[in-house]
Amino acid sequence: MDTQRTLLGILTPSSNTSLEPLTSALCAAAPGVSAHFARFPVTEISLKPQALGQFDDDKIIAAARLLVDAKVQCIGWSGTSAGWLGLEADHALCRRIEDATGIAATTSTLALVEIMQKTGARTLGLVTPYIDDVQSKIVANFATEGMQCVAERHLGISTNFDFSEVSEAELTDMVASVAEAEPDAITAFCTNLKAAHMAERWEATYGIPVYDTASTVVWKMLRMLDYDTRRISGWGRLFQEVT
Asked: pTM of this prediction?
């Protein structure tokens, strides 16, 4: 294998149509980096038992094992389920992935928490497409991690595919709304929102760092592989400023 290549393995919900093109575009801005994807079934985001069961580790591990064949150097769960399941769910998942594949693993949510801690950010503007009770769980779980949501907007959608239909204009309105509270950071917290490529524009407009969860997992994976993320431009302050 060409040692100059950096191969990232990305786990994605089956109904997600945003994160693959966005992640591939982001990786195209990183010399030598490529992303390779494995899916597992997810169609609904809610607190119903059947929806929570979609994130059973066994299904995710089966997808992760397929990435071994691509000789990826790191595996990332590009998803936000730990927001409502609790961060220990992601810690446990990473341990199981590493045990099953021998490959280091991380997640979008764990990366976001690390970024907030590294930058000293304590307050957050939360933008999601989720329904009320899922949003409330996220706010509560973030609070236990020392991240206070001082402003939030959500759309009340539970069908995962439909998240990708949210327009850039609507997302911009939501970001503008939470920016009024002047949080330390803003997160677009859902990897099926078409938001990652907008981060730099929103940061220029509102003067607040924007951490999109499709981007946070890539940032962390590259850091784990000692890749200099400052080589990436056009995707927000995260890659230039957080080391």
From this structure: 0.95
Above pLDDT 70, what percent of the chain?
99
Architecture of domain 111-212: 3-Layer(aba) Sandwich (3.40)
- Asked if pLDDT for residue 23 goes beyond 60, the answer is yes
Mean pLDDT of the chain: 96
Give the containing element (helix H, strand E) for 72: none
Q: What is the pLDDT of residue 1?
A: 42
Q: Which numeric CATH code is attached to 6-109+214-235?
A: 3.40.50.12500
DSSP characters for 11-56?
EEETT--SHHHHHHHHHHTSTTEEEEEEEE---B-SSSHHHHGGG-
**Using CA atoms, how far apart are residues 134 and 145, in angstroms rounded to an integer?**
17
Whether 110 contacts 94, CB under 8 Å: yes
